[in-house]
Amino acid sequence: MTFSKPLIAMSITLALTGCSLSSAPSDDAFTLTVAHINDTHSNFDPVKSSFKANDTLVYNEFGGYPRLQTMAEEYKQAAADNNDSFLFLHGGDAWQGSAYFKLNEGAMNAELLSRMGLDAMALGNHEFDLNNAKLNTFISDINFPVLAANVDISKDPDLKGQTNLKPFVVFAFDGNDKVEVKDLTNLPTDKDLVAVFGIALDDMPNLSPNTGKVEFHNMVESSQATVDMLKAKGINNIVAVTHIGNAVDLDVASKVNGIDLIVGGHSHTLLGDFTNIGHDHTGTYAQMVINPNGNSQTCVVQAGQYAQAIGQLEVSFDKQGDVTSCAGLNTLLSNDEYYHSPMREADSKFSAADSEKVVDFIEGEDNITITDEEASMRSLIDTKYKPAVDKAYGKVIAQVPEEINHERRPGDKGTDEHGSDVAVLIAAGQYYWANTPEVKAVTGMDVDFALIGAGGIRTNIEAGEYREGNVALEMLPFSNFMSVVPVQGKDIKALIESTITATLPAGAHAGKFPYGGHIRYQFTETKANQSGKLDFVEVMTGTASNPTWTPLQDNKTYNIAVNNYNATGNDGWTPLFKAQQKNSDRVDLAYVDGKLTGFKVKNIDEVNGKYKVRYEGKAPNCKAANTRCNTDAQAMIDYIANEMPVITPQSYEVVTFKRAM
Asked: 5'-Nucleotidase C-terminal domain: which residues (predicted)?
């Protein structure tokens, strides 16, 4: 059953959280209710999770598209019953992240998202993970617009004719009645007007190499120009749906006049205080940011990740379109079946009496609710898509006695100063694989250590049976190939220091955070959310059972194993690009006709904002039927199958990240 609380009655929500301004209620000319999600990443099924009910640790599941559908429909119905103006927005990155996407490449996303009743979605970086022809098909197949005011698609052969990728969309409201306005020269005068425009990352080519010939323009300049144009037309209530990260949302709000509300994505930030259920306080929901004119303000929200939660808020405007109040909250959507063990064995299931206590606890909390899965969407997933996914997972390669956690940045979401236990296992696996006789015969190099960016890892290692597909379809789904790169120690230090520093601001995108295998470091934050210093970097020269550590030498060349995405310098791993800009002895690894094949790199050029790898001979053709490029996942599969029949966290730590108090 669904235990939906009066959250949808926003008069209660207004008292709970968010910020209200000083204008009197009589100044309010218009109030808009907004529901929002972001970074759903093809998590159509629920995510296994846990929370604390008072002092009891509860293993449950959160979200999934059928639960989002149920809650979105409740919000919409409540708005209709109250004759409230209502929008449902998506902050981007609907693509990638699960086995479903690997098999269906956007088609399933289009079908399920179109059932949700979305009004608009931001253009995320992972929407470029395939190619622009497939992105074009996705955008054509959905029944809502994708928004990005700072992109130019006119030169891209696949997207240039796409009419559903728009800079903005304008809605006219008469209470709950809503129509899209397409003629800005003849705006209705008897309705409340709301413009929603999109902003994508302006460094998208560096983050998503498959952007084709799409051009991306400055986020602040494009935002201000769009707002100015809309206001000149007479539209004063303005919402931005963005995929740039919470920290950047706050920065844009401080530099642009006239955005009333930013509905964000990209940094996976579940804004709000969730310490009541044993989770984190991850930042203010509905934070108000003063615009550069010193008068108007922007309200900023974001709703986490992986379809686990949905946000809802009310924003009120005066006659000039300035925000007078903005408040709401994120709500995690739980099931009603609970276990004492992460393995979820039958004998660990809560008794009826204990379950009732958990239900009573949830009923008393505002930011978690029990939600049924919408039946027709659940049936569609189970009958049309799930059988092929289940088949694709392959054979069992290990057992996992207890869930192993992945968190991008140490200290976030209850993790300690060492952060992800998953990332260091993957890096250790890639180090192991790169030093196998088969790989060394191709590269001719002994590898000293491995590095991995946290954003390329998409799941925890869940308790229970572990299959090949858990690695290749879910945890490492991007089909990157492994690279072995000779790099000097000073470049490694620059890489670690610069990538960590970039993640320090509150709400920053932390996907670039570095983890390693057979290398360890300590970084100390000296000025909270701004700066820090790299205390030491050491290479492991012993064994797992008897590790010994040797300081990294600035002028010594080390052979490192790293996936090609980061090896090229993408996502802020710029020191690796610079180290290979003139020449490189790097070897990339893929299977061609079932045989491991090396592709020697000559150097890396920067072409129109993108890093372009130049090979001495042919480049790996990952689109070819005879070529398999996901050697990053294969490395981990081989490591588990050969070395870890029971997967447990590594016995020693490799990352220490000391946060400023």
From this structure: 425-575
Q: Which pair of tokens denotes residue 252? A: 């844009």
The 3 state secondary structure assigned to 155-183 is: CCCCCCCCCCEECEEEEEEECCEEEEECC
Q: How far is it, in rounded angstroms, from Cα 474 to Cα 396? A: 15
**In terms of C-beta density within 10 A (0-12 exposed, 13-18 middle, 19 or more buried), how is residue 83 classed?**
exposed
Structure tokens belonging to residue 202: 């302006």
Which residues does residue 241 pair with via DSSP β-bridges, in sequence order? 198, 263
Antiparallel, parallel or unpaired: β 595-607 and 482-488: unpaired
Q: Which two tokens stand for residue 59?
A: 């293993």
Q: Is 582 exposed, middle or buried (0-12, 13-18, 19+ CB in 10 A)?
A: exposed
Structure tokens given for 578: 């610079």
**Phi–psi pair at 96, nearest 5 degrees:** 65, 165
Closest by Cα among 249, 143, 138, 129 to 199: 249
- Here the tokens at position 402 are 């207890």
Whole-angstrom Cα distance, residue 337 to residue 277? 16
C-alpha closest to that of 660 among 528, 482, 557, 570: 528
For 190, the token pair is 């008897």
113/142 Cα distance (integer angstroms) = 7
Check residue 264 and give left, alpha or beta (phi > 0: left; psi -120 to 50: alpha).
Answer: beta
Query: What is the DSSP code (8-state) at residue 241?
Result: E
Given a contact cutoff of 8 angstroms between Cβ atoms, the answer to whether 480 and 621 are in contact is no
Q: What is the DSSP string of 200-214?
A: E-TTHHHH-TT-TT-
CA–CA gap between residue 30 and residue 635 (Å, rounded): 56
DSSP state of 385: I
Question: For residues 47 and 308, what is the distance between their CA atoms, to the nearest angstrom?
Answer: 7
pLDDT at 151: 98
Question: Beta-strand (E) ranges in 355-507?
Answer: 368-370, 396-400, 449-453, 464-467, 482-488
- DSSP SS3 for 403: coil
| Residues 333 and 303 sit within 8 Å (Cβ to Cβ) | no
Count of helix runs (H) and strand runs (E) in the chain: 18, 34
State the Cα–Cα distance between residues 253 and 293, nearest whole angstrom. 11
DSSP letter at 470 equals I
Taking the C-alpha atoms of residue 187 and residue 292, their distance in angstroms, rounded to an integer, is 29
Query: What is the rounded CA–CA span in Å between residue 401 and residue 579?
Result: 42
Helices (H), 329-465: 352-363, 375-380, 386-392, 421-434, 437-443
Of 422, 586, 409, the closest CA to residue 499 belongs to 409
Give the mean pLDDT per block of 10 residues along the chain (661 residues): 46 40 56 98 96 96 98 98 98 96 96 98 97 97 98 97 98 98 95 98 90 97 98 97 97 98 97 96 96 97 98 96 97 98 94 98 98 98 96 94 94 91 98 98 98 95 94 94 98 98 92 97 96 97 87 98 97 97 98 98 93 96 96 98 96 94 77
Q: What are phi and psi of 487, to 5 degrees?
A: -140, 145
**Of the candidates 308, 299, 359, the residue with the CA atom closest to the CA atom of residue 2:** 359
Largest CA distance in the chain: 77
Distance CA 443, CA 436 (A): 11
User: How many other CB atoms are found less than 10 A from the CB of residue 485?
Assistant: 26
Looking at the DSSP bridge assignments, the partners of residue 575 are: none
Nearest to 17 by CA among 343, 331, 237: 331
In angstroms, the CA 150 to CA 130 distance is 21
Q: What H or E segment, with its residue span, contains residue 90?
A: strand 85-90
